[in-house]
Design goal:
Length: 304
C-alpha cells in the first residue's frame, strides 16, 4: 500500500537543484522516466549498455544544469568495445535525446570497460552563436561512468565534484555534488567532507525509486539543505525532413541520383530517434529543383 502510494506520487523527468545554507556546496538531483523510456522504445539495448547509456543521460542533464548557456551539452563516447559510440544531448530548452551503436554480446553485469572497451568520453558544449564549441576529453577508465566524469572534473576544473548515477529499464537517475569556490578554510573543507560522505551513502535503489524530497531528506536531514527550483525535462529530437533534404543536397545531385538508381530510393534514419526518412525519384528531383531555383535567382534578378 505504502509503496504504491509513493510510486504514484513520483514526480519524475525533472531536475532539482539544492544548496546548503552558509556552506559552499551545491547539489543537483535528476530522475528521468518518460524521457528515458522514449529512448528505449526506439532501440533495443543489452542490459549493460542500457545501464551506461541511461547513466550518461542522467549525467548530461546534471552537467547541463551547471552551465548557464543557450545551446546544448553533448556527452559522447568513442571506443573499440561492443558499444562503439554512445551519445547523449541535453539542450537549454530542457530536452534530451540519446542513442548507442553496438554489436556483439555483452554480459548483463558487464562494467563500463567491458561495455565500451578502450576509448574516450568527450564533453562538448555548444553555445548558440559561438564560433567554436568547448570540448573536454577524458579516457574511459575505471568501472563506472560516474568515475570517468569525476576524473574529468578533477582534470578540468579545480572544484571537488562527486557524481552518483543509476539506470535500469524504467528510470535513469543521478546525484551531483560540487564544492563551490570559497576561501577554502578548514571549516569549508569539513563541510564538504561531511556532506559528500552523507551523499555517498546513497544506494542505486534509492536513486531509482525515491523522489527528490524523500531522498534529499534521507541523506541530508541533519544539514540545512535548501531546495531550489525544479526543472522539467523531456525527450525531443530536432531531426526533420527539411534537415534530411539539406543532407541530400550536400551529397550533390550526381551522388544522390546514383544512390537512387542503386537502391530505388534514398532512406536516411535519424540515429537519435530512429525516424526513417524516405526519398523516391520524385522527392529527390524536388530537392534539387528547389536548389537550382535558388541558385538562378540572382541571375534572373540582374536580367530585369
Ligand atoms: Zn530524430
Amino acid at each position: 500500500m505504502t509503496d504504491n502510494k509513493i510510486e504514484n506520487e513520483l514526480d519524475t523527468d525533472n531536475l532539482q537543484r539544492f544548496i546548503f545554507d552558509n556552506k559552499p556546496v551545491r547539489g543537483e538531483w535528476v530522475q528521468l522516466d518518460s524521457s528515458w523510456k522514449e529512448v528505449l522504445v526506439r532501440r533495443e539495448y543489452p542490459v549493460a549498455i542500457q545501464k551506461v547509456l541511461g547513466e550518461m543521460m542522467a549525467a548530461a542533464a546534471l552537467l547541463a544544469a551547471t552551465i548557464k548557456i543557450k545551446g546544448r551539452l553533448i556527452l559522447q563516447t568513442k571506443s573499440n568495445g561492443p558499444a562503439s559510440v554512445m551519445m547523449v544531448e541535453c539542450t537549454s530548452n530542457n530536452t534530451l535525446r540519446a542513442f548507442a551503436q553496438w554489436k556483439g554480446d555483452v554480459a548483463d553485469d558487464a562494467d563500463l570497460l567491458a561495455v565500451t572497451g578502450d576509448g574516450t568520453l568527450a564533453i562538448t558544449i555548444e553555445v548558440e552563436g559561438a564560433k567554436q564549441p568547448y570540448q573536454g576529453v577524458v579516457s574511459l577508465a575505471g568501472d563506472s561512468m560516474s568515475g570517468v566524469l569525476e576524473t574529468y572534473f578533477q582534470q578540468s576544473e579545480q572544484l571537488a565534484t562527486r557524481i552518483w548515477l543509476a539506470a535500469d529499464d524504467q528510470v535513469a537517475s543521478g546525484l551531483f555534488l560540487q564544492q563551490l569556490p570559497s576561501d577554502q578554510d578548514e571549516q569549508d573543507e569539513e563541510h564538504w567532507s561531511r556532506i559528500s560522505q552523507l551523499a555517498a551513502t546513497v544506494t542505486t535503489t534509492e536513486l531509482l525509486t525515491l523522489d527528490s524530497n524523500t531522498l534529499l531528506h534521507r541523506l541530508f536531514h541533519e544539514e540545512e539543505c535548501r531546495l531550489l527550483v525544479k526543472t522539467d525535462l523531456r525527450f525531443a529530437c530536432s531531426c526533420s525532413r527539411d534537415r534530411v533534404e539539406e543532407t541530400i543536397k550536400l551529397l550533390g545531385k550526381q551522388d544522390a541520383f546514383d544512390l537512387l538508381e542503386e537502391h530505388g530510393k534514398i532512406e536516411i534514419a535519424c540515429e537519435f530517434c530512429n525516424e526513417h526518412y524516405h526519398f523516391d525519384n520524385v522527392d529527390v528531383t524536388q530537392v534539387f529543383v528547389g536548389s537550382e531555383v535558388e541558385i538562378k535567382t540572382p541571375d534572373s534578378e540582374t536580367q530585369h
